[in-house]
Amino acid sequence: MASNVQTLRLRRKEDPKPSIPSIARHTGILQDQLRRSARRPWNPNFSTAVRILLLIRVAAAMYTNIQDCDEVFNFWEPLHYIDHGHGFQTWEVTPMYAIRSWPYVLLHLIPARLPLALSFGKRPSFFAVRITLAIVSTLCEAKLCRTVVEKVNERVGRYLFFMLLFSAGMWNAAPAFLPSSFAMYATTMAFTYSLEPSSLKNKRRTLFVTMLFATGAIVGWPFALALSLPFVSEELLVFGGDRVEPGARRSWMISRWKRLFVAGLVSALIFVPVIAIDSAAYGRWNLVPWNIVRYNVFGGSDRGPDLYGTAPWYFYILNLLLNFNVLVPLAFISLPSLAITYRIDRKRLGMLKPGPDQSSPFTLLALRLAPLYVWTAILTAQAHKEERFMFPAYPLICFNAAVALYLIRGWMEVAYISATKSSYRASRSIIFAAMTCTVIAVAGLISLSRVLALWHYYHAPLSAFNDLEATELPRLLNITGLLPPLPPGTDEIDRPSIDLTPIRVFDLRVCLGKEWHRFPGHYLVPNGVKVDFVKSEFDGLLPAHFGESRAKPAFNGWWDRPGLRITPAGLNDLNKEASEFYVPVESCDYLVDSDFPEHPVSSPLEPRYAIDNETWERVSCLPFLDASHSSLLTRTLWLPGSWWQNKNEFGDYCLLKNREKVHNKELEVAALVQEEKL
User: Fold this and answer.
1) 393 versus 550: which is more confidently predicted?
2) Is the same domain home to 425 and 490?
3) Is 234 part of a structural domain of the chain?
4) Does residue 6 carry a pLDDT above 70?
5) Nearest CA to 657 among 472, 497, 533, 410?
6) Residue-wise over 565-600: b if at least 16 C-beta within 10 A, else e?
7) What is the span of the domain harbouring residue 227?
8) CB-CB contact of 204 with 241 (8 Å)
9) How far apart are CA 591 and CA 610, in angstroms?
10) Which has fewest Cβ within 10 Å: 215, 286, 326, 546?
11) CB 134 within 8 A of CB 174
């Protein structure tokens, strides 16, 4: 930090660059200074940071799994309904309960429709939305890294960049179609602007930070507003970048409070379009952010989030270790590390003893580290816990870890100088760089192993639906003559993208039983194929179908979808099962199911469909990890080789075909084609 605390810059140990006259007088010192200057930490500029981050984030958009069924049923499915006129509807997206906001969903409509406008089909829409989210996250992360370099410290900025780049947590969160991911983008940008200390001269900071936090809460997830509490405390109570004489403190505080109040009023204008869109969609006046808070906080003993499961207090610790590994302890020792630095290395923040009219740089840095602690404490206190709830704080985990790593490096430098009595030798030692590089490299390698584990062990649900569209449905069209023959002299691989529109004549039904929660959404199911549920051992509430609309999709007519204003009978906020949402398994043409031959589990409601060869034929079966019978370490991380994989057990994740039903439909359609009736 500079001594005037106008910027929160952690002081580097290297000497400042000498002036030109000094260089002219001391050529020997010049050579040493140039050597030191050449060792300044490398940091990418904004453009380079965007390009590097974008490579990883787009890869995540293309290959990451869908981690949470809430993402599919509460966001992908409503978007698909607006876009294509059919999809699943949960009780949260009904006018009776209205705890999901349509403005957030509509933000994704343009990237979803762009591939259709370019005649690329429906499946690319899924990836177009994900890539758009990846781009937004990339821009926010790059902005944060550059601001940390400029306002905090070059080394902290470099550590932060690589921690974000290789984090398994950011791999999952960045392209996720979830309000908590949207809140993460908004929080990251708000935090970026808040790194500069508050000052009466800088009204822009107050307004931008307030609006960004408000946007994340109103459009995204209202509980994310808790991350702004340290910022609010600084705005109202901490001098920050101001120097205030004792006699002027009353007027100073009034000015600060008034400024934050005005910024809050301006930010509240975001409610206007949100309320207008939600009210038009649901057909009645609705304040969705309040509905979310009311249900989750004031729902009463017979309803609320606890109906959907509770977890022990250490849930987030274990989950964060999965996604951030060694960065987690670093992140949570950042405040204690700051206290230790205050005692043994106070010069590191630049100001030895601030005056009574200004803030200590340690106070300002503590306020930057505090949001992670506040957020973790609030979430840990709740009985219902989910991985996605931590998303808004993911970049802050990396920031806190980067600061802690920098401070610990400072302790090592102090100890080395104390032992060698030479700051010159300390400046030339590679011990400190080796330590920090080792920590970041280990964190990155463990995260890479975690990402590969998620792909190899749990990607089968997305692959199974890809096989349905890319292999099985073209086979039906080909065998019945609905697929145009290839020109003479061409191979199947040269065939242009297949138009699956004729598949409607088959009136196919794909069913989900115990694997309902891994359904990736209608964007990965061709139009003309209906998806339904069959009864399984699960006894909670499943989604209903939106009221189907055959109206042509239009950007200016999305509210004409009738299902937006209808609450289907059976949907409730008590998680009570609705039997009318099931279909008989005999009516299914295809069935998606999992089977674990090494440890088979069968019941009247969940028979082993995959081994019933008389009724079901295996169209596609992919390996899927049997987590309950695999080693904790090997199911968590992935490494090649049988010595590692032999500790895991796998089952089959299958797309099954009803032999008789599908064969009969093939014969019927083929006969109609021959009669030229299709």
Assistant:
1) 393
2) no
3) yes
4) no
5) 472
6) ebbbeebbbeeeebeebbeebeebbbbbbbbbeeee
7) 45-456
8) no
9) 9
10) 326
11) yes
